[in-house]
Every structure is written in structure tokens, then in C-alpha cells.
Amino acid sequence: MFSFLGLSPAVVKALQDYHIYMAENSRISIAGLNDSNVEYVARAIAHVLRQSEKQESGSRLFATL
């Protein structure tokens, strides 16, 4: 079973640093999640999204200067 997470290709690429792999369009195998890894995957996605948000807001600030 697969699901699309709606993540950008940059976020998908950054998740590879956490050994989380999915298609570039953020399609992920839900069947690969289990009690042992679901929290790790969720925390990694949240962390990368927060980092991505910070970078985007910084670049928007720079663009307005």
C-alpha cells in the first residue's frame, strides 16, 4: 500500500540523510512502516520540514532586502 505525502523533491532528498527513501514525488510505502520505525520516520519528516521552512523564510527575507 502506498501513499503520497505531498513533500517537495528537496525534502524527499533530505530525508535520504535519515535513510528514509521514497519516490521523488513523495510516494511512500505505508506497508514498510511498523511499531519499530513509525516514530522515527515521523520525527525525521517533521525535522526536515522544519529545516526546510526555516530556509525558505530566510530566503524570502533576503529577497525582500
Automatic annotation (TrEMBL):
Cofactors (names): pyridoxal 5'-phosphate
InterPro entries from the UniProt entry: Asp_trans (IPR000796), PyrdxlP-dep_Trfase_small (IPR015422)
Source species, domain of life: Eukaryota
GO annotation, cellular component aspect: cytosol
Entry's Gene Ontology molecular function annotations: L-aspartate:2-oxoglutarate aminotransferase activity
GO BP: any one term: aspartate biosynthetic process
Keyword DNA repair: no
Entry keyword Transferase: yes
Keywords: Aminotransferase, Pyridoxal phosphate, Transferase
Quaternary context: Homodimer.
Name recorded for this polypeptide: Aspartate transaminase
Taxonomic placement: Eukaryota, Fungi, Dikarya, Ascomycota, Pezizomycotina
